[in-house]
């Protein structure tokens, strides 16, 4: 096993605790009656998948969702709905990855959308006013790459873009299918559960390198 130089974190379910039920509830309140069918913690369906894979930008998604529901839905209402996924953003996890950058390159790789990332890049994201991008060396967002995990092309795109070797990278994701694909592509992997404080496990993994 090669020595680790790069750590790639999933966002939702690893750095942020997710609550699908709250997200569904918010969109149902906005008139999206089939929200439970389209929303998923790992991979969306329908219009929400088109948002995450970049087929629809934020405004075109807003228009499409408004047409889907038969009522006008605003940008801020959609942002409010999607942020329902974000049940808790634990500052201690971000303090931890901040310290990791003293020894490792750290990246985010997330199936996400421009509404959530608008919030993540704002000063409201964490109590200290820091944005997500201030904690990492880079962010690989699905809607910008036009690919969603577990697409194998993501795992060849990232090392080419960031200049690291897959075998020297640890991929951390709460989605078993994503972790399985990363392992097939030569990455070292770890699959924690949503809500789990994975810091002691990661300490052990890094200590044994």
How are the secondary structure elements laid out?
Elements: E1 6-9, E2 17-18, H1 20-29, H2 35-38, H3 46-52, H4 58-69, H5 75-82, E3 86-88, H6 91-100, E4 105-110, H7 114-120, E5 138-141, H8 142-145, H9 152-162, E6 169-172, H10 176-184, E7 188-190, H11 199-207
Parallel strand pairs: 1-4, 1-6, 4-5, 6-7
Antiparallel strand pairs: 2-3
Helix pairs in contact: 1-5, 3-4
Please tell me about this protein's structure.
This is Haloacid dehalogenase. InterPro entries: HAD-like_sf (IPR036412), HAD-SF_hydro_IA (IPR006439), HAD_sf (IPR023214), PGP-like_dom2 (IPR023198). It comes from Porphyromonas macacae. The protein is α/β, with parallel strands linked by helices. The chain folds into 2 domains: 6-17 and 89-208, 3-Layer(aba) Sandwich (Rossmann fold), CATH 3.40.50; 20-84, DNA polymerase, domain 1 (Orthogonal Bundle). It has helices spanning 20-29, 35-38, 46-52, 58-69, 75-82, 91-100, 114-120, 142-145, 152-162, 176-184, 199-207, and strands at 6-9, 17-18, 86-88, 105-110, 138-141, 169-172, 188-190. The model has no long low-confidence stretch (mean pLDDT 96).
Summarize the model shown:
With 209 residues, the protein is α/β, with parallel strands linked by helices. It has helices spanning 20-29, 35-38, 46-52, 58-69, 75-82, 91-100, 114-120, 142-145, 152-162, 176-184, 199-207; strands spanning 6-9, 17-18, 86-88, 105-110, 138-141, 169-172, 188-190.
């Amino acid at each position: 096993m090669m020595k680790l130089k790069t750590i790639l974190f999933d966002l939702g379910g690893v750095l942020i605790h997710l609550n699908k039920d709250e997200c569904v509830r918010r969109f149902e309140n906005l008139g999206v009656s089939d929200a439970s069918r389209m929303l998923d913690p790992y991979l969306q369906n329908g219009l929400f998948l088109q948002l995450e894979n970049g087929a629809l930008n934020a405004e075109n998604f807003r228009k499409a969702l408004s047409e889907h529901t038969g009522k006008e839905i605003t940008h801020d209402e959609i942002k409010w709905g999607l942020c329902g996924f974000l049940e808790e953003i634990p500052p201690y996890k971000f303090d931890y990855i901040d310290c990791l950058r003293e020894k490792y390159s750290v990246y985010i790789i997330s199936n996400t959308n421009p509404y959530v990332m608008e919030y993540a890049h704002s000063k409201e994201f964490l109590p200290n006013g820091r944005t997500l991008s201030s904690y990492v060396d880079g962010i690989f967002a699905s809607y910008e790459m036009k690919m969603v995990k577990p697409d194998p092309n993501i795992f060849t795109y990232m090392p080419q873009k960031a200049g690291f070797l897959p075998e020297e990278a640890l991929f951390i994701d709460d989605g078993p299918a994503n972790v399985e694909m990363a392992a097939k592509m030569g990455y070292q992997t770890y699959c924690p559960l949503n809500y789990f404080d994975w810091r002691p496990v990661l300490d052990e993994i890094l200590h044994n390198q």
